[in-house]
Amino acid sequence: ETGVTQSPTHLIKTRGQQVTLRCSSQSGHNTVSWYQQALGQGPQFIFQYYREEENGRGNFPPRFSGLQFPNYSSELNVNALELDDSALYLCASSTGGAGGYTFGSGTRLTVV
Amino acid sequence: GDSVTQMEGPVTLSEEAFLTINCTYTATGYPSLFWYVQYPGEGLQLLLKATKADDKGSNKGFEATYRKETTSFHLEKGSVQVSDSAVYFCALATSNFGNEKLTFGTGTRLTIIP
């Protein structure tokens, strides 16, 4: 059983650029959530996808968007990058229900 | 809204000491409660969970009991090891029309000294 894999592991972008982060969910998991973890903080919920539809969103602006594909893999897109977007971005997949989340190791994004 | 308050860190203990990391929460409805652990350079790993009041979650010698009356889910371990050094996050999950999201505390960094 494979876990959740994220790519790339590290990324450096310039302010104003756009970035796409990718996530392959664990086999059999149809729900994917994305979290932003700033340095020294707990993860913050960005949004969740279930069967290719957005199924809930946290307090993030529209320049944070996502996709889920038929194989349940997912992308997080961030437009017009700001310095404060520098963080570890975590993807988590589940089958739904109470807390069956498996997290990936994350993508460390640095905006300069 | 939902929130989780964790014991401020960092926490430094000697090997074989007793560990308690306090966690309290505010939530509407009946959340599920979790402890996650994050080792350096890695993502989050589920340590234990409890889905209803008075449930006790346990794993690898760690325990936490869901206390609805005190809205708490304190993490305990009787004898810590150097390998337990990590950041620990308390979290709750609430479900709204099938959308379940996790709300995390700020994390507690634990360092165990040999």
Give the overall average pLDDT of chain B.
Answer: 92
Percentage of residues assigned to helices of chain B: under 10%
Judging from the principal axes of the Cα atoms, what is the shape of chain B? globular
Which chain pair has the greatest contact? A-B, 29 and 27 residues
Unreliable spans of chain A: none
Number of DSSP-assigned strands of chain A: 11
Q: Which whole number gives the mean pLDDT of chain A?
A: 92
How many helices of chain B? The count is 0
State Rg of chain A: 13 Å
**Oligomeric state as shown:** heterodimer
How helical, in percent, are the residues of chain A?
Answer: under 10%
Radius of gyration of chain B: 14 Å
| Parts with pLDDT < 50 across at least 5 consecutive residues of chain B | none
Query: Strand share of the residues of chain B?
Result: over 45%
The largest pleated sheet of chain B is described as: 6 strands, mixed
The termini of chain B sit apart by 41 Å
Give an account of the 3D structure.
- The complex is a heterodimer of chains A (112) and B (114).
- Chain A is mostly beta strands and 112 residues long.
- Chain A has no helices and eleven strands.
- In chain A, the strands form two sheets. In chain A, strands 2, 4, 5, 6, 9, 10 and 11 form a seven-stranded mixed sheet that branches. Chain A has a four-stranded antiparallel sheet with strand order 1-3-8-7, with no helix packed on it.
- By secondary structure, chain B is mainly β.
- Classes of the chains: A mainly beta (112), B mainly beta (114).
- Chains A and B meet through strand 4, strand 5, strand 9 and strand 10 of A and strand 5, strand 6, strand 10 and strand 11 of B.
Map the helices and strands.
The complex is a heterodimer of chains A (112) and B (114).
Chain A: E1 5-7, E2 10-13, E3 19-24, E4 31-37, E5 44-50, E6 53-57, E7 64-68, E8 74-78, E9 87-94, E10 102-103, E11 107-111
Parallel strand pairs in A: 2-11
Antiparallel strand pairs in A: 1-3, 3-8, 4-5, 4-9, 5-6, 7-8, 9-10, 9-11
Chain B: E1 3-6, E2 11-14, E3 19-21, E4 23-26, E5 32-38, E6 44-50, E7 56-59, E8 62-65, E9 75-77, E10 86-96, E11 99-104, E12 108-113
